[in-house]
Amino acid sequence: MTSLEAFASVFLDVAVRISLAILTVSFVIIVFRTLKGPSLPDRVVALDMLVAVGIGFIAAIGILTGYYLYIDIAITLGLVGFLATVAFARFVLNRGVAGDKTIVAEVEESIKRREAGQ
What we know:
By secondary structure, the chain is mainly α. The chain has four helices and no strands. The chain is elongated.
């Protein structure tokens, strides 16, 4: 191992540990915002940020341990987090609208499919 490779290894280890410390601080701040958030959209954004911080944690742990399957898990969590954000946005958009025609149509279609055995 050359001196450049040794330096790169130590530098990567220190950088990952610093990033984990920063992610931990941001996680605590985001949890506080999630609990205190004055409105529902603030809480939705905070939950989306929690997913992003979780992805960062998983990726940093994957780099630290050298087990790169964690990166695939982080990508999957990103996709699931995106879908959750879209669902939350739709919920916030339709919140308070009783009898929304789009939702009623979807529910009726779902009931018909269930009755048809699909």
